[in-house]
Write a structure and sequence with these properties.
410 residues, alpha+beta, paralog of FGE (formylglycine-generating enzyme), 2 domains, 4-stranded mixed sheet, 36% helix, globular
Length: 410
């Protein structure tokens, strides 16, 4: 009887887990479509720069991920929606096969946005059939990875769409036309900046093994922190205006060599999406149009090079990712405002080993020439933030919702 009871409990647990996973799958997949509600078919086809992707491509790529890695290998009677989509919507999985060049995704006028919707419905129906009671733990882990992967692309869909709309004067010269459903600017935090003293010592860094995490968040390990201080809030737009007024973008002594070269080459004079109006002063392009710059709001859309130059101008430095993780509980604006550039290169943790196969290409092969960001931004999907989360981008990129927090040695 005891053995039978254990089996019954396991069956109930598997059924509950499958139901929960199916609900999570519907929720995440529906949220992607929700984000695209305000985008026309024309909006969804635009690729405003090689780093960005059309909204339609994000919707299709996340669907291809489930089709390629989940359905074709685990649902016996599954039939791919269109065999050509593997070439069109593979991103960087070299072990899977060739793919359409990333800088040319904006040329994919076909399939249409409506056809991509049909593709998503086809895959969603198959996922519903797959996620029944008795799903193996390995499959559940793979589906969960796919959902977090889709949430990453939800954030990219938002920031890529904002960049595309910012290139069109008609899209940002007015105000009040919210393109992103439910969007609102984060509440500003007025008041002076205070530095929180941190004693240093040994800190445990990385994923503790409970709940989902990407492979690059492990293994958990000890890290020695030196005594330091962290600003209790992110750098605000008002402070960045002081940096501009003091010639911050014209003083090479403040910049790393590559950063100064990028500043000159791109003609940077302010953060991305700032506009100078002769009558209204500094404005910022948002999903609610082009509005007056909120002085008490965190500065966003800056590169690592700009963040590093500002920190040097301030007589401070950027924090390390370990310093931020260890102090996260004491920082009210750690989540939901802006990703925070760190002074940490994106490298593997000690004893890191990527998974085998195509899934192993997810993070490990990008651990070079990039810098780590911590926290989350207003564009991060609900529930996707995590203290140990390691975001990463090359140091010259600034179309994401990226800001900074200052640190000092003590």
């Amino acid at each position: 009887m005891q053995h039978a009871q254990v089996s019954s409990d396991n069956a109930s647990a598997h059924a509950a887990a499958a139901s929960s996973l199916a609900d999570a799958c519907r929720s995440v997949r529906n949220h992607t479509e929700y984000l695209a509600i305000g985008l026309s078919a024309e909006d969804q086809c635009v690729q405003s720069m090689p780093d960005a992707s059309p909204a339609k491509w994000h919707r299709a790529h996340t669907t291809w991920f489930f089709e390629q890695f989940v359905l074709t290998q685990n649902l016996q009677d599954y039939r791919p929606f269109d065999d050509a989509f593997g070439y069109l919507f593979n991103s960087y999985y070299d072990t899977v096969g060739p793919r359409h060049p990333r800088p040319m995704r904006g040329l994919l006028t076909r399939p249409s946005a409506a056809h991509v919707s049909a593709y998503r419905a086809h895959v969603d129906a198959a996922l519903t059939r797959l996620l029944t009671p008795g799903v193996a733990p390995e499959l559940a882990e793979l589906v969960t990875l796919g959902l977090h992967h889709e949430q990453q692309h939800q954030e990219l869909l938002v920031t890529d769409a904002l960049h595309a709309l910012s290139q069109n004067p008609l899209a940002w010269r007015g105000t009040g036309s919210v393109v992103l459903p439910g969007w609102s600017a984060p509440a500003p935090r007025p008041g002076p900046t205070h530095f929180l003293q941190r004693a240093g010592g040994l800190a445990l860094i990385g994923h503790a093994g409970t709940g989902f995490a990407f492979d690059n968040e492990s293994p958990r390990h000890q890290h020695i922190l030196q005594p330091h201080a962290l600003a209790d809030r992110l750098v605000h737009n008002a402070e960045w205006l002081d940096f501009i007024a003091d010639g911050g973008y014209a003083r090479p002594e403040l910049w790393m060599s590559d950063g100064w070269a990028a500043c000159c080459a791109h003609g940077w004079e302010a953060p991305m999406h700032w506009r100078r109006d002769e009558v209204r002063g500094w404005l910022q392009v948002t999903f609610a149009g082009c509005a007056a710059l909120a002085l008490d709001a965190p500065v966003t859309h800056i590169s690592w090079y700009e963040a590093d130059a500002f920190a040097r101008w301030s007589g401070a430095r950027l924090p390390t990712e370990a310093e931020l993780e260890a102090a996260s509980a004491d920082l009210p604006d750690y989540f939901g405002y802006a990703w925070q550039w760190t002074n940490s290169a994106y490298l593997p943790y000690p004893r890191f080993k990527p998974p085998s196969g195509a899934i192993g290409e997810y993070n490990g092969k990008f651990m070079i020439n990039q810098m780590v960001l911590r926290g989350s931004s207003y564009a991060t999907p609900p529930g996707h933030e995590r203290v140990t989360y390691r975001n990463f981008f090359p140091p010259d990129k600034r179309w994401q919702v990226t800001g900074l927090r200052l640190a000092k040695d003590i």
